[in-house]
From TrEMBL:
It comes from Ficus carica. This is GDSL esterase/lipase. The keyword Transmembrane helix does not apply. PANTHER family: GDSL ESTERASE/LIPASE EXL3, GDSL-LIKE LIPASE_ACYLHYDROLASE. Belongs to the 'GDSL' lipolytic enzyme family. GO terms for molecular function: hydrolase activity, acting on ester bonds. It comes from the Eukaryota.
Length: 350
């Protein structure tokens, strides 16, 4: 159990839940010609399929409710939140992975994700599962811009970049997969508050890099109540399998620091609009009152026993996998079901 937990303690599962609402902060008639995504498995649409890592989901039962029952590399039974947000904007119904050879710059011109399951702000986090580090996602973005300029022309490409909504979903892996999974490595260098500040510094530099590359509309995603992920509840035996409160407290503390960061960034960079997107309260409401949203189960997930399975532990032949994922808040022990993602995206568009 401990080994599985260390390997799969993943991801800020819902990326900045209210990222659609951020446009209302920009301007009521905001034009969004493209959505550009950075992050972890909550927003990876298949980039990890193309690299040698065990952090994959390109096999059944993942994708069983996707068009054609096709596993794509999304950690879901179907589409993920960014797909629904794209659709709400009147763009395409799915955002493709940059490394997916099935797509080209004509597809990426209106939306692309550079995200990699298992990644985080900290380079050491991406090393755990040998996935794409945040700095490498940024390098792919630079490469993408060159292709976009060749495709649209430099002026139109620059306009596309400045008007696009740039979204991030990072952080949970840094705490659950790195800091707490390898305490001797991380805790010896930082206490928890220092580590939070270290990550916030990386986030600040990353947004600065995006700004330098022309991005002007940026949604900085916060952490969900990560102590309520099914795996964390499963291993909380002495807490009667309830949410792990200390992880939730850390998520709230970190979110507060990210929110303050957006104020600083908006003052430091002319013409930028950075908005903090906080998923914490919305997700907690769903988790604590699942029936109000049409769910039957929030404490365990649909896949297999629903207690600790993610990735390869989510087996298509497991007799315990649920038949109707729409009854579950979580698809696997870290990631929401397609229905949860749809509710979040649609609620955010009000």
């Amino acid at each position: 159990m401990a080994k599985i937990r260390n390997i799969f303690s993943s991801t800020s599962w819902i990326l900045a839940i209210f990222q659609f609402l951020t446009l209302m902060v920009f301007e009521s008639d905001a034009k969004v010609p493209a959505i550009i995504v950075f992050g972890d498995s909550t927003v990876d649409a298949g980039n990890n399929n193309q690299i040698p890592t065990i952090a994959r989901s390109n096999f059944e039962p993942y994708g069983r409710d996707f068009t054609g029952g096709k596993p794509t590399g999304r950690f879901s039974n179907g589409r993920i939140t960014t797909d629904f947000i794209s659709e709400e904007f009147g763009l395409k119904p799915t955002i493709p992975a940059y490394l997916d050879p099935a797509y080209s710059i004509s597809d990426f011109a209106t939306g692309v994700t550079f995200a990699s399951a298992g990644s985080g702000y900290d380079n050491a986090t991406s090393d755990v599962l040998d996935v794409i580090a945040l700095w490498k996602e940024l390098e792919y973005y630079k490469e993408y811009q060159k292709k976009l300029k060749a495709y649209l022309g430099e002026q139109k490409a620059n306009e596309r970049i400045s008007e696009a909504l740039h979204m991030t979903s990072l952080g949970t892996n840094d705490f659950l997969e790195n800091y707490y999974a390898f305490p001797r490595r991380s805790s010896s260098r930082y206490n928890i508050e220092q580590y939070q500040d270290f990550l916030v510094g990386i986030a600040k530099n990353f947004i600065g890099e995006l700004y330098g590359l022309g991005a002007r509309k940026i949604s900085l995603g916060g952490l969900p109540p990560m102590g309520c992920l099914p795996l964390e509840r499963t291993v909380n035996i002495f807490g009667r399998n309830d949410c792990v409160e200390r992880y939730n407290v850390i998520a709230q503390q970190f979110n507060g620091k990210l929110e303050k960061l957006t104020v600083t960034l908006n003052k430091e960079h002319s013409g930028i609009r950075v908005v903090f997107s906080n998923p914490y309260d919305a997700l907690m409401n769903i988790i604590k009152q699942p029936s109000s949203f049409g769910f039957d189960v929030a404490s365990v997930a649909c896949c297999a026993t629903g207690m600790f399975e993610m990735g390869y532990a989510c087996n298509r032949n497991d007799m315990y996998t649920c038949t109707d994922a729409s009854k579950y808040v979580f698809w696997d022990s870290f990631h929401p079901s397609e229905k949860t993602s749809r509710i979040i995206a649609q609620a955010s568009s009000i």
